[in-house]
Specification:
Length: 113
């Protein structure tokens, strides 16, 4: 059974940092594209970052230079390192495995002073 579980969210002040983790189980992570999405209150879910099987990455313009996506296929983990956080980064962050059409339940990130 495929399962994605996010963790690492929380409340952080503007300019702060967080590391989100996505633990994958029920399939072998190796070689698959993985994605991070977020959904702000009252807004549609948006793609934040993509990491290809070999490790190539792409980012939304709004997070370029601040967020870094990475993976550890041995540990079945995908990470999102978020630096210089802004209030507009607030939202629920989701891990996604597009090939298997799987979503995690999300982890809340709140950026506020």
């Amino acid at each position: 059974q495929v399962h994605l579980e996010e963790s690492g969210g929380g409340l952080v002040e503007p300019g702060g940092s967080l590391r989100l983790s996505c633990a994958a189980s029920g399939f072998s992570l190796s070689g698959y594209v993985m994605m991070w999405f977020r959904q702000a209150p009252g807004k549609e879910r948006e793609l934040v970052a993509t990491i290809a099987g070999p490790g190539g990455t792409t980012y939304a313009d709004s997070v370029k230079g601040r967020f870094t996506v990475s993976r550890n296929d041995v540990k079945q983990m995908v990470y999102l390192d978020m630096n210089n956080l802004k209030p507009e980064d607030t939202g629920v962050y989701y891990c996604r495995w597009p090939t298997g059409n799987a979503w995690g339940r999300g982890t809340q990130v709140t950026v506020s002073s």
